[in-house]
Amino acid sequence: MASTADIRNGLCIKYNNDIYKIIEFLHVKPGKGPAFVRTKLKSLTNGKVLDNTFSAGHKIEVVRVETHTFQFLYAEGQEFHFMNNETFEQISLNRDILDAPDLLKEGTNVMVQINTETDAPLSVDMPASVILEVTYAEPGVKGNTATNATKPATVETGATINVPLFINEGDKIKIDTASGSYMERVKE
């Protein structure tokens, strides 16, 4: 058993007969009253996110996990297929367990957390950013640059990202996987 002092991002815990991953947390010590920990939890079974507050010192049940590097092979409907880079064992995961499935390109390496008790995959951690090629973008309208003007662009995985007006088809762009937003243009 662990306590709220052990809470950190990425920790997997058992809570309300489900397994949750801690996305965000904040230790709060008000001037009056006891301290508490405000958390944002993501269910690893259905993908729902909920806010929860634990009182300081509250006992939490930690799920032991191992992290392995897997390579994304291909998607088939709602199923995404991955291969372990060390053992070459293949697994398939439902689209709901992934944080940003629209940004996954074939060959991308991801970190998969596996429950050590049941050997069941719990969550998939994407790389911090991915580089994708723009397959479709409207031409930028000259003179429409008063402020940070953006336009929608479609990348090679089919995702639509808002990009600056100077981005054209064929450009490679770096995308933040946490927010799904444009970071920068990548030059070869």
TrEMBL record:
SUPFAM superfamilies: Nucleic acid-binding proteins, Translation proteins SH3-like domain. Residues 130-185 form the Elongation factor P C-terminal domain. InterPro entries: Elong-fact-P_C, NA-bd_OB-fold, Rib_uL2_dom2, Transl_elong_fac_P/YeiP, Transl_elong_KOW-like, Transl_elong_P/YeiP_cen, Transl_elong_P/YeiP_CS, Transl_elongation_fac_P. Pathway: Protein biosynthesis; polypeptide chain elongation. One of its GO terms (cellular component) is cytosol. Transmembrane segments: none annotated. Signal peptide: none annotated. Keywords: Cytoplasm, Elongation factor, Protein biosynthesis. The keyword rRNA processing does not apply. Its main location: cytoplasm. It is found in: Cytoplasm. Residues 67-122 form the Translation elongation factor P/YeiP central domain. Pfam families: EFP, EFP_N, Elong-fact-P_C. One of its GO terms (molecular function) is translation elongation factor activity. It comes from the Bacteria. Involved in peptide bond synthesis. Stimulates efficient translation and peptide-bond synthesis on native or reconstituted 70S ribosomes in vitro. Probably functions indirectly by altering the affinity of the ribosome for aminoacyl-tRNA, thus increasing their reactivity as acceptors for peptidyl transferase. Belongs to the elongation factor P family. HAMAP family: EF_P (MF_00141). NCBIfam families: efp, PRK00529.1. This is Elongation factor P. The gene is efp.
